[in-house]
Every structure is written in C-alpha cells, then in structure tokens.
Amino acid sequence: QVQLQESGPGLVKPSETLSLTCTVSGGSVSSDSYYWSWIRQPPGKGLEWIGYVYYSGSTNYIPSLKSRVTISVDTSKNQFSLKLSSVTAADTAVYYCARLFCSDRSCYSNWFDPWGQGTLVTVSS
Amino acid sequence: DIQMTQSPSSLSASVGDRVTITCRASQSLSRYLNWYQQKPGKAPQVLIYGASSLQSGAPSRFSGSGYGTDFTLTISSLQREDFATYYCQQSYSTPYTFGQGTKLEIK
After folding, report:
1. Torsions phi, psi of B89, nearest 5?
2. Kind plus residue range of the DSSP H or E element containing A112
3. To which H or E segment does residue B34 belong?
4. Are residues A113 and B55 in contact, defined by beta-carbon separation less than 8 angstroms?
5. What's phi and psi for B59, nearest 5 deg?
6. Most CB atoms closer than 10 Å: which of A76, A115, B86, B92?
C-alpha cells in the first residue's frame, strides 16, 4: 500500500523560500501511471492544486503560482519536492502531497489518491 | 480555469437521512469529476471518481451521478462517520480545481 509523507520546516519567513519534500513508500515514483502532486489548504479554507511532476521530470503548475513554484522528483530517493519562493502570509497553509492516479494513458480520468497527512507551513517573521 | 461551485455550502442533517450535494462546473467536464471527503485535521480521501465510480473501500451508501456541467453526490442513509466536508474536483483539464466545499453537520 502506497504511503506519502511530507517533511520540511513549519515556519518560513516572508520573502524566503518554502521547501517541502514528500517521501513515497510502498511504491515507486518511477511508475508511468502516476503524476506526483502538491495541493494546499489555507486554514479554514478550500483546496488548491499547486502542480505535479512526472517521473521524467516534466511538470505542470497552476498559472497563478507558476513564476514562484518548482516541483522536482528524485527517483533515487523515491521522493518529490516543492519549492515556493518569495512567500507571503497568503502562502500559509496545510500542504499536502498526493499521487495523481491516471486510469488510462490519456489521463483524462484521474484522481488524487492517496494523500499524505499534510504539514502546516506558517509564513511569519 | 474551470470554476466549480458546490451547493449548499453547509448542511445540517440527521443520522439516517438521505442527503444530496450538488456541484456545477463553468464548462463541460464530460464525466471527469471526482468527490472527496475530508474530516477535521485529516487529508481528503476520494469517494467517487469519473462522476459515478465508487472508490474501492468507500461505503456503498455513497453514489455519484451527472454529466457535462451538473453533478451530484448522494448519501443514501447518513451514518455518524459521514459528518465531514465534501469537495468536488474536476479532472478534465489543468489547473485542476475544487469546489469550495460542503460542510455536513449533525442536526
């Protein structure tokens, strides 16, 4: 059974870079059926997809964050990572990593499963 | 971006009730719509994918329907463990987007 676990600092100063890592166990990030995603949820609010990375390194990001976000994969460590630069208080959120499962090659039918437990990142001086 | 609108935003119901939550998309999704359940302090879990397919392990009292722009999630007989927040999510195109959530509370 695949499990995902986020790790990284819980407090980041404004204007600095938020860095999180997701460690995958029970499965491989190198599988061609999955994309590896980051999703965030500000306290008391809804869910926002940030982007994903494929094992090849190809990425797709939400346009509103594209200039500040980098998602990368390390197949040797079975991990993928999120970097978000120039953070502000608006970036305070619980950050989840999740596997995007594609039911076929086109990946039109896809869903997030499983998710990590989430990690709260607070942006504050 | 595809906008997802859920209704209602909150709902009070009793154990045993039949409950329906609606999700509307700003453009056609075909059947590429998923539903998630989130309990306080926990990560969301997928219940329904492809508008109407029940995820393995999800209780059969959950069902989904719809096509195009209008979708529903139905819980046939509410159980105490179903009180949570529910989100729809479109998987038709990136950026993937979620509805604002429907909080289901005990009456």
Report:
1. -150, 130
2. strand A110-115
3. strand B33-38
4. yes
5. -65, 145
6. B86
Q: Say whether A116 and B43 touch across the interface (CB within 8 A).
A: yes
Which among B30, B91, B99 is the nearest to A111, CB-wise?
B91
Close Cβ partners of B12 (under 8 Å, ≥ 6 residues apart):
B105, B106, B107
User: Cβ separation of A113 and B55 shorter than 8 Å?
Assistant: yes
Gap between the Cα atoms of B83 and B13, Å rounded: 9
pLDDT band per the 50, 70, 90 thresholds, residue A106:
confident
Q: What spatial distance separates the first Cα and last Cα of chain A, rounded to whole Å?
A: 39
- The SS3 of residue B16 is coil
Q: How many CA atoms, within 13 angstroms, populate the side-chain half-sphere of residue A2? A: 22
pLDDT at A40: 98
Closest partner residue to B95 (CB to CB) among A63, A111, A112 is: A63
Is residue B45 within 8 angstroms of chain A, CB to CB? yes
> Which residue in B1, B55, B98 is closest to A46 by CB distance?
B98
A101, A113 contact by CB (below 8 A):
yes
Instruction: Render pLDDT for A30-58 as a digit per residue (tens, 0 to 9).
Output: 988 899 999 999 999 999 999 999 999 99
Q: For residue B53, how many C-alpha atoms fall within 13 Å in the half-sphere facing its CB?
A: 12
Measured CA to CA, the distance from residue A119 to residue A117 in angstroms comes to: 7
In total, chain A counts a number of residues equal to 125
Q: Where would I find the H helices in A37-125?
A: none
